Amino acid sequence: MSWRTLFAALSVAVLVATQCGCSSLPFLSKKAEESAAAASPDRAVYALEVEAPNDLRKVLLTYLDLARFQNAPATDSITGVELDRLVAAAPAQARTLLETEGYFNAEVHITRATTADDTPLFRVIVNPGPRTVIDKWSLDVIGDLQRHVAAENEDAVIELAALRRRWGLKAGAPFRQGAWNEAKNQALAQLRAEGYPAATWVTTTARIDAQDNTVTLSVIAESGPLFRMGPITIEGLSRYPEDAVRKLATFWPGEPYSEQLLLDYQDRLQKVGLFEGAVIEIDPNPATATAAPVLIHVKELPMQGATVGVGYSANTGPRLTLEHMHRRVFGRPWIAKNRFELGPKLKSWQGELSSYPLEGLYRNLVSGSAERLESASELRTSWSARVGRAQDTPHIERLYYAELAHSRLDTSAGVANSDAASLNYNWIWRKVDSVLLPTKGITLSLQGAGGYAVGRDIKEDGITEGRGPFTRAYGRITWYKPVGSWYATLRTEGGQVFARDRVGVPDTLLFRAGGDESVRGYAYRTLGPVVDSAVTSGRVLWTGSAEIARPIFASRPAFWWAAFIDAGNAANRWSDLHPALGYGVGFRWRSPVGPLRLDLAYGQNVHQMRVHVSVGVAF
Description:
Layout: H1 3-20, H2 26-39, E1 47-51, H3 54-63, H4 65-70, H5 80-99, E2 107-114, E3 120-127, E4 133-142, H6 144-150, H7 154-165, H8 177-193, E5 200-209, E6 214-222, E7 229-235, H9 243-246, H10 259-271, E8 275-282, E9 292-300, E10 304-313, E11 317-326, E12 334-342, E13 346-355, E14 362-375, E15 378-392, E16 396-411, E17 414-432, E18 441-459, E19 462-483, E20 486-498, E21 530-531, E22 534-535, E23 540-553, E24 556-571, E25 580-591, E26 594-603, E27 608-618
Parallel strand pairs: 1-3, 4-6, 7-9
Antiparallel strand pairs: 2-3, 5-6, 8-9, 10-11, 10-27, 11-12, 12-13, 13-14, 14-15, 15-16, 16-17, 17-18, 18-19, 19-20, 20-23, 21-22, 23-24, 24-25, 25-26, 26-27
Helix pairs in contact: 6-7
């Protein structure tokens, strides 16, 4: 192609572009269209006001067509003709929306005016009238549940009574379409969770009396057959044996189905340490209801895993942690865990060898620990070795073990060496809405021990030895209770070591107070009997705490502020125990992996403020 031919072609292209306009270019066409739409005399520009109670005003401004098109982009805007149509239809549409909120006799008017810049202004004026309330309601069932109730089966009678007791719309309550749907959904979900997973609604009726502003509700459910547990089928296993899954089941074939049974089973599978995730479901086919197959899908964790973490606690300062787990030691059904913690004040090792689950949810275990702790101007070195058995049920944890323990305590008053052999029993009971972030319920922890101790105290004035039997008792109870928009937490703990005065019980079995989980406002382990100007561990303990908290912002429910008061101390005799008082305010972040706590507390006995922080991050 010659240069003359090329020049002629370019000239034609420029001429065409000039005649057609720049808007024909694809990268400018959209902007040009929007500009044209904005300038179009057919586009309706108007203002809207809604005069109604706040809750109804929000509904109308959200769903009324006049409101939705007011701020629509230019490409979705309406013309003047369409605006006239929306204005004419608005009263009827508004009344329909108000009926979903329970107002069946609302009066809606629209007036037209102009703003200062001559923009059309439409006012939607609402007189909602009285709200419809529930006059009567009934909830009935047909199917297996009703037949069992007629036969006076106790479980069925209790279940139907619970279904009616938890019905969400009682007489006198305001009627809303959203609440009506929610009540039906919750009732059906409860029925399906308590033995009847094939349950469906037969009829759900809401009869409105617009003249009296009342509504009568009637629902009838078909329960379907009562499902019973059948054979277990497991999928996803390659590294670990089936017994590791089957022995965690707490139900037997033929037991009535319960969703909670499966949820508890799923929780135990996730806590056993072998699986990354677990999903348990039953086959909802009514044809197999008498022995519904239980399907378990697991995702196994690797045979070995290691975690490095960093954290900080006001008790012991910053820390670096290393954890390692082997989930099948030497090819046997045992799990080995090791945890090392390194910090300026605390250096420790904890190790545990535990069996896979046995019959009755028991596990055999062997464990040991070693620790070097600096606190309150003292140095404690200690170690322990345990052999025992543990059981973890949905609400109760039990631990039985025999222990050998040693501790050495270096203080300004001298050196105390102690050794002990003991038999121990620990028992924990929980009934809370969330184990990780509880807001309602109770937890109770009890410990008991008995054994024989040998101690030697080395001081400037000589060496004192003492040996003999001892027993130890300890208890802690925590109560969580919502109070309106607030959340209260009450805690108390107490303990005592019973032994003759000359018996040298290891420091790890004695008591002190102070710190994050004890009496805030005081440093960790700084509250106890004072001997020769040094704080020591005591044989009796009592602490108590009261805290109230609430979210800082309704839109940010994970961030809370709190106010608290703590009291307590340790001593060698109850008559010598004088509680120290601490109080202050705090900040909470309820993260998905646990709470971050930041507290500013004033210790009344030491006349100073102290910051308590508890947080950890793993990577």
